[in-house]
Amino acid sequence: MEKSPEKILVVDDEELIIQLLRDYLADLGYEVFTAYSSEEVLEKIGDGFDFDLVLSDINLPGKSGIELLRIIRELKTDIPVVLLTGLKTLDNAISAVKNGATDYITKPFELKSVGQVIERILKKQHRIQWQEQIFEHLKYVKYYFQFQSSGFSPGLLSKEIATVLKKIQFTNQAEIDQFELAFTEVLVNALEHGNLELPSQTKGTDLAGKNPFEELREKRLKDPAFSQRSLFVTFEADLDVFSLTVRDEGPGFDWKKYFHKSKQDNSVNTDHFGRGFKIIKHISDEIHFNEKGNMITIIKNNHR
Amino acid sequence: MEHVDEKGNLGPSKDSVMELNIAKKNSSLLIEIIGAVDNESAEELKNQFESLIDQEFKEAIFNLELVPFITSSGIGKLLVFYKNSLNRGKNMRVKGISDNLFELFKSIKLDNLFPIEK
Fold first, then answer.
1. Domain containing A25 — which CATH number?
2. Which of A74, A78, A270 sits opposite B79 (nearest CB)?
3. Are A11 and A38 in contact (CB under 8 A)?
4. Any CB–CB contact under 8 A between B39 and chain A?
5. Which of A285, A276, A303 shows the shortest CA–CA distance to A183?
6. Which of B1, B7, B38 to mutate to test the interface with A (most CBs of A within 10 A)?
7. Cβ-defined contact of A73 to B9 (cutoff 8 Å)
C-alpha cells in the first residue's frame, strides 16, 4: 500500500518565502499547506487539520512564531515545530528550542538544507511513533540488569524503569512518579547500605560542610572491595502488576527485626535511618526479603 | 513560572533541573521549590539552605506546588532545615503539596513536626 504524503504547514507572512518553500517541499513529495499568520494556523487546527510538521517564521504579524509554538504545544504536544529566524531573533530561536521547538533554521537559508532538516525530523518522529506502537500492544515486559557499584546511578535506572510503565500506560503520570520514587529508594538502599555498607547514622544534621556519610561514600566508591560489588536488578510488568527485585552483594541486614519495629513504630523519624524504607512501604503493596536480607522485592498491583 | 519539557508538555517536568525561588514577606521567608527533588538536587537544596537558615525570618514557608517528586534524601534535607530552624527559634511549614506527596509526608509523620497544607 502506498504511504500518503506527509503534511507540512508552512507559516510566513512573506509571499515569496511561502511560494519558494511550498514549491520546493511539494517537489520533495510532501503535501504542503500554508498560512500567513498564527491566527490562520489556529483556525486550521480548530477546523480539524492535522499536520506532521509545522515550519514557521518567528516574526509574524499578530501572535509571533514563539507564541504559536506555545499554543501548539498546549494543543498538540508532540508535533514537530521548526522555526525560521533571522539573525536578530536567533537568541529567541535558541531559547525556543529549549522550550519545545524541534529545531530552527536561520534566514537566509538554502532550500536544500530546509529539506534535509525536515527529512531528519520526520524520520526521528516515525521512529518514536513506531516505538510507541510497539509498546501499545505490549502485554508483558521483563528486564534484567547487572551493574557494578562504581558509576551506578539509581536515579537514571529508576527513570528508565518508570518510562517503561509510562509506555505500557500502566497508570497516570502522578502515580508513575510515585513508583519512580520507590524504585530510587530501593536502588539507593541496595547501593549505599548494601554494597557500600554506609551507616545511615553518619548522615548528620549540619547544614554546613560535607557530612561523614558523603565522605565515606566517596571513599568506598574508590575502594574495589566495595565498588566492584554488583547490583542485580529484575523488573517485570504487565498491565495488572509490576515487581522490582534488587539484590546486592553486601552482608544483608536483619529485616525481620526492623520490619517488626517499623510496624509498631509510631514516632516521628527525624534521623535519617529508615525513612527510605518507609517510603517504599507506603508506595508498595507487598515487600519481600530473602533470608540474608540482601535482596528485596517490591510488588505493586494496578488499582484501576 | 512555566516549563516546557523536551516533548513540549507544559508545566514543571520532573526531568527538569530543580530551581528555588526565594522571597521575603514581612517576617516570613518564602521558599518555592520548582521541579523534582532527587538525590542530586537534594545536595543542592542543602547548599541553598545553608545560606538561608541564618537570614532574618520568623517562619519559613515552603511552597511545593511545583514538586512532583521528592526522594527520602530530599525529605532529609527538609528535616535538617527544620532541626536547624528549631535550634534558632524559628518555625517552618509546607504548603501547596500534591495529594500523593501529602499522603507520603503523613505516612512518615512529618505532619507531627510542622504544618503541611495541600
1. 3.40.50.2300
2. A270
3. yes
4. yes
5. A276
6. B38
7. yes
Amino acid identity of residue A98, one-letter, is K
Domain end marker among A117, A133, A149? A133
Q: Peptide bond before B115: cis, by omega within 30 degrees of 0?
A: no
CATH number at residue A230: 3.30.565.10
Instruction: Pick the last residue of a domain from A133, A162, A179.
Output: A133
Judgement on whether residues A163 and A288 belong to the same structural domain of the protein: yes
CB–CB contact A266 B109 (8 Å): yes
- Quick: pLDDT tens for A47-102: 877 899 999 999 898 888 888 888 888 876 678 999 998 877 778 877 778 778 89
Residue with C-alpha cell 525561588? B21
pTM: 0.71
Span A222-276, pLDDT tens digits: 999 999 999 999 999 999 999 999 999 999 988 887 766 555 555 555 555 578 8
Range of the domain at A168: 140-301
Using CB atoms within 10 A of its CB, is residue A11 exposed (0-12), middle (13-18) or buried (19+)? Answer: buried
> What nine digits make up the cell of A141?
515486559
Distances (CA, A) of B107 to A165, A282, B66, B100: 24, 7, 21, 11
Indicate which of A82, A159, A181, A218 best probes the interface with B, i.e. most B CBs within 10 Å of its own CB.
A181
Residues 6+ apart with CB under 8 A from A222: A150
Enter the C-alpha cell of residue A21: 518553500
Q: Are B59 and B52 in contact (CB under 8 A)?
A: no
- CATH number of the domain encompassing residue B85: 3.30.750.24
Taking an 8 Å Cβ-Cβ cutoff, which residues of chain A contact chain B?
70, 72-74, 77-78, 99-100, 154-155, 159, 174-175, 177-178, 180-181, 184-185, 188, 203, 205-208, 266-270, 272, 275-276, 278-279, 281-283
Cell 504487565 belongs to A238
